[in-house]
Amino acid sequence: MRIDGLQYANWSEKIFRQLREGGVDAIHVTISYHENFRETVLNFEKWNRWFETYPDLIMKGQWASDIDTARETGRTAVFFGFQNPSPIEDDIGLVEILHTLGARFMQLTYNNQSLLATGCYEAEDMGITRMGKQVIKEMNRVGLVIDMSHSADRSTIEAAELSERPIAITHANPHDWSPALRNKKDAVIRAVTGNGGMFGFSIYPHHLKGKSDCTLESFCEMIARTADSYGIEHLGIGTDLCQDQPDSIVEWMRVGRWTKEIDYGEGSKSAPGFPAMPSWFKDNRHFGNIEAGLKATGMSADEVAGIMGGNWYRFFGENFGPQIK
Amino acid sequence: MRIDGLQYANWSEKIFRQLREGGVDAIHVTISYHENFRETVLNFEKWNRWFETYPDLIMKGQWASDIDTARETGRTAVFFGFQNPSPIEDDIGLVEILHTLGARFMQLTYNNQSLLATGCYEAEDMGITRMGKQVIKEMNRVGLVIDMSHSADRSTIEAAELSERPIAITHANPHDWSPALRNKKDAVIRAVTGNGGMFGFSIYPHHLKGKSDCTLESFCEMIARTADSYGIEHLGIGTDLCQDQPDSIVEWMRVGRWTKEIDYGEGSKSAPGFPAMPSWFKDNRHFGNIEAGLKATGMSADEVAGIMGGNWYRFFGENFGPQIK
């Protein structure tokens, strides 16, 4: 079973076919960065059209059992998420509405301060806000998973503690291995995995040691060491693959509508666009490389299967439905 | 089994308890008249709160099987609908979005011309519009039932013919019995029931012979005669109960935001408010009176059971899911 914990591709029939070639049973896709509620609904509509147009390649994913259906019918189940809480605007009632529409992950912040928490690019981290505490309870209640990939450290640790259900960092790597701002320090990973949460390893070059030149061996050895530290059952893949996106999209991700100036985020003035993916993971057809790389570290077949998808599958099964108290 | 094909009450714990006292297993409730998409979402949110607050009395209804669950657990399943297509605005993609949120009925018009069809108060009836034809196909595809209760005759007959699935008139009576503008002529009822559709009998006094003074005997005899003409399996109840609503609400229903002048609709300047309900049906505790009245006409127990809920149950089961071609 192969499950990718985060992608934001420029979707097309070509990519849907590559998902099938790569044996990808399920993906969590970002459908909103800075979109408000109505704009997010338009993005759900866009996916409804794709599901109608390509019924043999993809299907809507709502529950872990949809992954079983996808496997039985040779399709990829697509699960939805937001990298910012902008789709709920200032309305806690939209948490359940968006879950009903199919949202299964929501980041409490995207780099900046939000109404709920502090993003990883702010100078100060005030932790979870008043509204944030209410929204965490509501996300717990309905089964919308809290994702802290782009949040600041204190906010992330507080979210893990406040949440009555496991949370996730869908796409990042350990800061020890590659000290990027977006990579996560030991205390953060420990807080998330300690509450039963998941950590998805990113292949976005800015998160890799050596960036685009990072070797498969280095990436897989890092995963093996992370498993030793935090427990292999909490680990999965979250490639952050942004295939076929024009550079205008990475600018939208960073700048949205919140500034009139350019913000380069993880890039720089001399390299503002999307970085080149490493040679061993250019697109969805290359999941086999990661699987082989993990085997080469000496992991058992079961351990590799867990990281490639089994752990996400269990996590989806436990966390997408209503909270049982 | 007791199912009401339309209500628009001023919902409260009192009314939810009366639904239980009246043994009502399911109701179709109107949640939008003139509301746009975002306002309609707020109405879904309001119901989510009620489901959370009164889990022992009511539950969200999406499929006929939810009525079985409601009966097993002593609750009322609440199904949602709109009396106007305003929630989809000019965006056909919202048909599926709103179905996903739980909408199961949508009128193509409410008295006036809409983007889709002509309402029963217009002087001219142009039939189904260009967008209307597209929306009928989309409603058929996803399982959102076309309701023509407030539409003009030609538009209704065309909708019945264009639709590949049965349609409904959820709340009206035969024009032959009581010649109100909103009651339906023979050709209209024949078109709807002839395509497998449902006709729900209204107890809104403006639709009754003798209005608030209409007798239970007259109402039930009329149902028996309608069954003889069109087939009993196509008939149900759609009380149009607007319990506990202030008169400002009937003004909103009639006037919305489309005029600055008062429109009295079925009322009049001297009687602009909600009319008094007949003595034998004041609220949801009185469904037993209708059941007794139907038995008194000489109908068999099976026939009465069909009208009281069995026919809606079958119709819900066949028409709320995706179209099978």
Automatic annotation (TrEMBL), chains A, B:
A GO molecular-function term, please?
Answer: metallodipeptidase activity
Q: Which domain of life is it from?
A: Bacteria
Q: Which InterPro entries match?
A: Metal_Hydrolase, Pept_M19
- So which residues are the signal peptide here? none
**Where are the coiled-coil regions?**
none
Q: Which Pfam families match?
A: Peptidase_M19
Single Gene Ontology BP term?
Answer: proteolysis
**Protein's name in the database:** Peptidase M19
Specify the taxonomic lineage.
Bacteria, Pseudomonadati, Pseudomonadota, Alphaproteobacteria, Rhodobacterales
